Amino acid sequence: MSRQYLIRRLLIAIPSLLGISLVLYSVLALAPGDPFGELATNPAIPPEVAAALRAKFGLDDPVWSRYLHWLTAMFQGDWGFSFVSRMNVDTLILQRLPTTLIVIGAAQLLAIVVALPIGVLAATRPYSVFDQIANTLAFIGFSLPTFFTGLLLILLFSIKLDWLPFVFRDDITATGLQWLWEETKQSIMPVMVLGLFQGASLVRFVRSAVLDVVRLDYVTTARSKGIGERKVVVRHVVRTALIPVVTLVALQMPIVFGGAIVTEQIFRIPGIGSLLISSILANDTPVVMGVTFVFACLVVLFNLIADFLYAWLDPRIAFR
Amino acid sequence: MGSLMNERELRRLLAEVKAGGLSRRAFVRRMAAVGLAAPLATQLLAYSGVAMAQGASEYKPTKRGGGGMLKLLWWQGPTLLNPHFAVGTKDQDGSRLFYEPLAGWDPEGNLRPVLAAEVPTRENGGLAADGKSVTWKLKKDVTWHDGKPFTADDVVFNWEYAKDPATAAVTIGTYKEVKVEKIDDHTVKVSFEKPTPFWASAFVGAQGMIIPKHLFEAYSGAKSREAPTNLKPVGTGPYKFKDFKPGDTVSGEINTNYHMPNRPYFDAIEMKGGGDAVSAARAVLQTGEYDFAWNLQVEDEVLTRLEKSGKGKVVIAESGNIEHIQLNSCDPWKDVDGERASLKTKHPILSDPAVRKALTLLVDKGSVEKFIYGRTGPATPNFLNNPKRFRSTNIKDEFNVEKAADLLEKAGWKKGADGVREKDGKKLKLVYQTSINQPRQKTQAIVKQACQKAGIDIEVKAVTASVFFSSDVANPDTYPHFYCDLQMYTTTMGQPDAGLFMNQFCSWEAATKANKWQGRNVTRWQSPEYDKVYREAEGELDPVKRAALFIKMNDLAVGNQVVIPVVMRPVVAAHGNKLRAVVSGWDNNTWDLQNWFKEG
Q1: Higher-confidence residue: B455 or A12?
Q2: Over 80: is that where the pLDDT of A315 sits?
Q3: Closest to A170 measured CA to CA, from B242, B267, B576
Q4: Is some CB atom of chain B closer than 8 A to the CB atom of A213?
Q5: pLDDT in tens, B509-518
Q6: What is the Cα B61 distance to its own chain's centre?
């Protein structure tokens, strides 16, 4: 039953990924500039050089044939190679994917750890002082874009206080505890920026989900049975309330990835987000296609995970 | 140097120094008296075969290593490490950590030997009298990082590798027209088709880094992309390759077999990429997290403010890059055979010399320098500014609105009811385009304001940089199309020589539909006189005469108002207070890396 469902979901993902790739490729083809633009303005390099490179990399072919070529290669597992670094796209991405996943994972973890207790606490004491403060902070948190909070933190912790580095280094040579310490120091700011942004909206979700459940009859029943308040909240309220929250966390992943692109650029984190930005600026089509494809896959994957978690948490929901 | 007028006198003095009748110092002093700057005077001496007084080496460390890690911040990180594939300066700079050329260019535009035993001159027999060949003596006992010896075979291989179109090397332009042969294991000869005054292009500077034959031989031609060493360089440089993540980090460790004594000073090196220029400046000048940052395209005001933290300094190295305004010679508003600004047309307004002259009087360069660029853009009257031996002293800058208005009035351009001048029913209206870039829009505003006062109506236009600087044949808004009356951008000068740089005013270089707008003469100015001087310079081997010819070319182009030079754009970098690093505008930022060190 559930395997059939999984296969169907995966099959549905194929046309949407195809659509995404088609739209992306056309937009990139329509955008001005080419990867060898920098050569054109250099007087030491004759114009034939750039022309020959364009021809060699097939940039002079019509857009549709380039797209079909890319697509067939992709189906065979060949991601192509970058025009600017002449390196295979999959190697480039694999080199950077772990960093992105670690940063995003840590941020998401931070978001959940912060948002869950605050949201639940705020909902169980609605309109109390704690609730008001939590609400206000949450509003501020998700209204401020990550590039702004990122710069703000750099200004405060790196420049004014000089506590934390603002350039993320991937090649720290220290070992053992020293390594951990340095790694933590440089990760604090990016993870905070992403995690608190994510956590802020999560607080709102958790709060409203818990508020909905707290008023239900079965909770009143549980309370009237004389179970302690703590048990009521943890066992009865939160378990039910979490179901929509889990879905929301997964559905929000695209926003986290978007935020990660900006954050990686600000803190110079060598993840796939900063790779995407530099490739777009360099008109490096194969890399842009590769990275966006990975992002698209991750989003589809997280949607799938959300669905399965939902069913696991609430057996009433059946796969159809 | 002025004109050729006192050339004879100059030669007499030079001969005197050579014969020992006049001291170097006296010569330089005498030159200064006639308005020649000291560097130029020493240049003249060098070119006339009088050895230059080598400045005492600044390098202080007395042993190799011990300097810890050197941290470089490039806000666009290198994306590949094969110098023959380097798309931009970032890639060349990254490759230069590991690879070296035969010689590099110092800040004054002089050659400094690296892998060469000496710089070829007429005296040491390196330069042929007919200017058709140059013989390089290579340093002995240089080894690649893997222990194999560096020989003439490697040098010859680089030529074969780069000139093969199948390799798709970016350096092909430097190597395809020369011939390279091995004389013995440590001597190579580079021959040219015709007498070549500027012979130091192949194997020199940014385009001249040498890769090892034994590791690239199997990957020449169509297989060039597959070479594993493209990403794991094995060079001769002061640092050995350690790790590379394209666009992010390049790291290296000390080469204990480096061919220069007591060098390098640092035990390891890291070049980090990504981010933006302002925060890169911050990381060096304000927090001191990094030792050196490159290409700081940041407003001078911001740099000065960051410098006040006292952790680092901004270094500015002269280059030939020039921000200038171009005046269209052809009519950009008329379509002839499917092409605007065709060579068959003349510009309806700008063909009037009075209008051109008035425009040069209306560009307030002083204010542009003072309020926009500061140290990063000194105002200049010349198009050709550097190396200094090519700089004209004949042109004076003037900003004078009244004089401009007067000129126009006399030429018959009368003010209409709306304050805009007109003549024969033609309104004095011009469209002035440039790329989107804050300093450029500010400059446009300054020019527009002055023009308005003089009765010229300027419509400013700003094009996205990625469009403006693209080579897209179909897009009419690129700078080579120049479908506009005036336009402004920076032309770069890659070599400390004016040969290639000044061909952008030659008639045959005009950018037209026929050559897909790849010609370098964007203003499409046609001048038989200029062409003649340029041809003359091409074959002129006497450096003094040659410099004089280029000065004449500058004077012709600027004197006929083909372009209005605005400000020079030197190379701007920043380094920590303790770091000693010489930056050159004629070579990579990392050209002198082996000599970098930190002072106590």
Answers
A1: B455
A2: no
A3: B242
A4: no
A5: 999 998 888 8
A6: 31
pTM score: 0.84
Residues A252 and A298: their CA atoms lie apart, in Å, by: 12
Task: Tell me how far apart the terminal alpha carbons of chain A are, to the nearest angstrom.
Answer: 8
Least confident stretch, A5-19, A21-35, B11-25, B275-289: B11-25
Compute the C-alpha angle B346/B351/B356, nearest 5°: 145
Q: From B158, B193, B162, select the one nearest B176 (Cα to Cα).
A: B162
For A32, the closest of B85, B475, B492 (CB atoms) is B475
Q: What is the ipTM of this complex?
A: 0.80
Instruction: Please give the residue of chain A at the shortest CA–CA distance from B467.
Output: A32
- Indicate the pairing of strand B249-254 with strand B239-245: antiparallel
Q: Which residues of B355-371 are buried (b: 16+ CB within 10 A; e: fewer)?
A: bbbbbbbbbbbebbbee
Span A101-128, average pLDDT: 90
Q: For residues B216, B221, B227 and B232, what is the CA-based torsion angle, rounded to 10 degrees?
A: 60
Q: Which of residues 102-161 of A touch B (CB under 8 A)?
A: 154, 158-159
Q: Are the Cβ atoms of A167 and B275 closer than 8 angstroms? A: yes
**Which residue would you say has higher pLDDT here, B253 or A178?**
B253
Distance CA A188, CA A110 (A): 11
Are A95 and B245 inside 8 Å of each other by CB? yes
Are B135 and B125 in contact by the 8 Å Cβ rule? The answer is: yes
> Which of the residues A30, A41, A48, A283 would you substitute to probe the B interface, choosing the one with the greatest number of B C-beta atoms within 10 Å?
A41
What phi and psi values does residue B478 have, to the nearest 5 degrees? -80, 160
Question: In whole numbers, what is the pLDDT of chain B averaged over residues?
Answer: 89
Predicted confidence at residue B1, as pLDDT, reads 39
> Encoding tokens for residue A125?
């004491």
3-state secondary structure of B47: helix
Which amino acid is located at A201 in the chain? S
| Interface residue of A34, A42, A94, A288 to substitute, partner B, most B CBs within 10 Å | A42
Mean pLDDT computed over B543-566:
93
d(CA B234, CA B258): 13
Instruction: Compare CB distances from A87 to B174, B231, B495 and report the shortest one's residue.
Output: B231
Rounded to 10°, the helix A89-124/A239-251 angle is 150
Residues 224-253 of A with CB under 8 A from B: none
Residue B42 above 60 pLDDT?
Answer: no
Residue B287, chain A, CB below 8 Å: the answer is yes
Q: What is the DSSP letter of B45?
A: H
- In whole angstroms, what is the distance from residue B109 CA to residue B389 CA? 10
What is the chain B residue with the closest CA to A266? B275
Strand order in the sheet with B421-423: B414-415, B421-423, B426-427
Res. B123: pLDDT tops 90: no
Q: What is the token pair recorded at B471?
A: 């080579």
Dihedral, CA of residue B156, residue B162, residue B167 and residue B172, to nearest 10: -160
Residues in chain A: 320
User: What is Dmax (Cα atoms) for chain A?
Assistant: 86
